[in-house]
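Can't paste images in this forum, so I'm doing it all in text. The chain is below; anyone willing to post the predicted structure tokens underneath?
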Amino acid sequence: MRVFVAGRDESGGLGEEIARRAAALEAGPAPRFLSPQHSALSLRDAGNERAFGDLYLELLGIRHGVDFRAGPPRGPGARGRLAAVLKSAVWRLVAGRVERIVTRQNTINELMVQGLDNQNRRLRAEVEDLRRRLGAAGGGPAARGAGDAP
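Text version of the structure:
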């Protein structure tokens, strides 16, 4: 396979990366039903914060179809290879701290989304209850004429 980017042949590194990712995609989508080891209950068995964070990121990635292990993007040529090596070295130095921050932020985001979903469900149920009660009392839209003011 030959890959050209901006008129330059990038088949070497980029072509291999594309072929590797394509092979992973050919393996098929994630399983519809995950094994018990992929249950959120497995988070209870994490021995420490680091193990919990690693497992949480893995489960989050499976749930949303995201690969957190992907390396930094690489530019073309020798400059791109050098930049990728430097990025990888810096990443190895800060990875632990960044992963903890990311894990905490993902947890906060998930909890916020769950809170908003719960609030939305509660408000919808409340509106439906009010509509039901108003209809039973005879003051609902169906009880009034089309031209009547509320």
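The mean pLDDT is 76. The longest strand covers residues 4-5.
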